[in-house]
Every structure is written in structure tokens, then in C-alpha cells.
Amino acid sequence: MQELQLQLESVNEAEEFDGEKYKNLENNLKEASKEEERYWRDKCRADWLKLGDKNTSFFHAETTQRRSQNKIRGLENENGEWKEEEYEVEHIVLGYFAGIYTSSCPYGFEEVLNCVQQWVTLAMNASKIGVRIGSEFKKEWVDGKASNG
């Protein structure tokens, strides 16, 4: 799975974006992820059959162990310094995502958007916007009238 992730990153960072290759790699990665999930689900089920069900101490021990493994104890900032304080870790995370979702020179949207499946049709979008604008307008008009009257 790591190899597929590296290939996907490589295609994504290439000078010339290949949407078809990206889609294929993404589908392969999804399938590999599903296989791994099935493996762990089956393994977990086998352990539970041997050791107990949801209401036992086994379940609680598994949950506690998973929580401790999933906890982020610290992160390295852009200067290479390790930070463990909650507010510092939060600042690093927010800065990272603000950076990856901000671009000073975006290009190639058509190629990328062609790889994304459309779920909301233009008609669905227009109907939702119209209802929302209408209800917001009505609310403001009522609030404005109430405050003026």
C-alpha cells in the first residue's frame, strides 16, 4: 500500500498531470485499503470469538489500547523543532492545512476536476441555493421589519 501511495504522490507532483494514471492508482489504492481493512476486521473478529464480546474487559482493553496508539503526542514544526504542547500542535496542524489548501498560482483545474465524480447536479445546486437565499432574505426582512417597527 505504501508503494501505491508513493506512486500516487509522484503522479500528483509531476510537471505534467496524468489524470488517467492518477485515477487508476487511486482505484488500486482504494482496493488495497479495502483488502487491508477486511484482513484486520477478520483478525479482530477471530480474537473476539476467542476472547469475548463487546461487554467484556477484552473489548475495553482493545479500545483503550487503540486510543493510546491513535493519540498525537507531538509534531515537528517547519523549523524541525519537536512540539508537544496542545496549542503548539494545533498551530502546526492549522498552518499545514492552511498551506496545502492555499495556492498563489493555481492551474490545471480542468485536468483534476475531470477525475472527480460529480454528485450534485446543476439543477440540485440551483434549487438549494434558491431556497437558502430565499429563507435568508425572508429572515433578514422579518428581522429588519421587526427592528424598525
UniProtKB/TrEMBL annotation:
Protein name from the UniProt record: Uncharacterized protein
